[in-house]
Specification:
With about 300 residues, this protein is of the alpha+beta class. It is about 30% helix and about 40% strand. Helix 1 runs parallel beside helix 5. The longest helix has 14 residues.
């Protein structure tokens, strides 16, 4: 029986670099599970996308270890290659929102064993103009935090790093006047934050992406936060988010397959926690069941 070939892509800087201590154990699990392992250690940003697009066709599956940004690169490379191979994910980042949504084990060796068992889940992927994202495209308040917070600070403080960095910006919030077109409706208003998500949590916080979330239904959750006029309104927004009340006077929430967002000025976006460029117009589409992610068991709808 032919042994399956796996391309194992590792980001050594994600999280606290714990992959260094687990690498031999993971390789041992792969080999004992009948996999021939080819290891690639990323050298620079977008390296994982490049190597997957170039080499995925030569392997039976692709595995990666890193944060959600590393998974984003692997998925982007797979989408660009137009080759469909199962993707295994061993989380090693600071928050791992998407891995938590997929209920991928936090322990690295357990996640490696899941990859050996190869229980693939067909998962939605988002296109963002000519780019791709796995679980979130966002603009406005806090979106700079994930990619401007120093990696060493993330490694030491974990999720607290995002909270602390975000707190420093809360009194200097910029608002954006945008036109949103989705589900045959046009909305024009000022917003301090907007996100298009396919996840049960963002930045480690659950409940703020909506209810009845499925990662394979061909729908994204759109959440837009209007610009508050004073501190009282800002507090009401924060309270609504913490309670998971996504439809309020200050928050609008939709499910949609496609959304267009336009503005007079270029807005900086983040895709899966990494800088996604400044754009005046974005077209976001949900590609249903576009990639196969290996999980321990099939996720169900979240009631959060």
């Amino acid at each position: 029986m032919r042994r399956k070939k796996v391309l194992f892509i590792v980001n050594p800087r994600s999280g606290k670099g714990q992959i260094r201590n687990a690498l031999l154990d993971i390789a041992d699990i792969f080999i004992k599970g009948g996999l021939d392992v080819t290891l690639y250690v990323t050298q620079k940003p977008q390296d994982a996308s490049r190597i997957v697009e170039k080499r995925a066709a030569k392997f039976d599956l692709v595995a990666c270890s890193g944060g959600d940004g590393t998974l984003d690169e692997v998925v982007t490379g797979m989408m660009n290659s137009e080759i469909r191979r199962p993707i295994g994910y061993i989380p090693a980042g600071s928050t791992n929102d998407f891995a938590n949504s997929l209920q991928i084990p936090k322990r690295m060796t357990d996640a490696a064993q899941c990859i050996v068992e190869n229980n693939a889940y067909p998962c939605d992927v988002g296109s963002f103009n000519s780019d791709y994202f796995v679980y979130i495209a966002a603009f406005g308040m806090f979106t700079e935090v994930s990619y401007q917070t120093n990696q060493d600070v993330k490694n030491v403080l974990g999720h607290l790093a995002y909270v602390l960095e975000g707190a420093k910006r809360i009194f200097n919030v910029k608002s954006y006047e945008v036109e949103i077109e989705l589900n045959g409706e046009k909305i024009r208003d000022e917003f301090i934050y907007g996100m298009i998500t396919n996840s049960e949590s963002v930045g480690g916080f659950r409940s703020i992406t909506g209810k009845n979330i499925r990662l394979d239904d061909g729908l994204f959750e759109v959440t837009m936060i209007k610009t508050p006029r004073n501190a009282i309104e800002l507090q009401e927004i924060i309270t609504s988010l913490l309670r998971g009340e996504m439809d309020s006077n200050y928050i609008i929430s939709y499910k949609t397959r496609q959304v267009a967002i336009r503005s007079e000025i270029a807005i900086p976006w983040t895709l899966d926690g990494e800088y996604g460029g400044d754009h005046k117009e974005v077209e976001i589409c949900c590609h249903q069941k576009a990639v196969d992610i290996i999980v321990s068991h099939q996720p169900g709808a979240s009631e959060i």
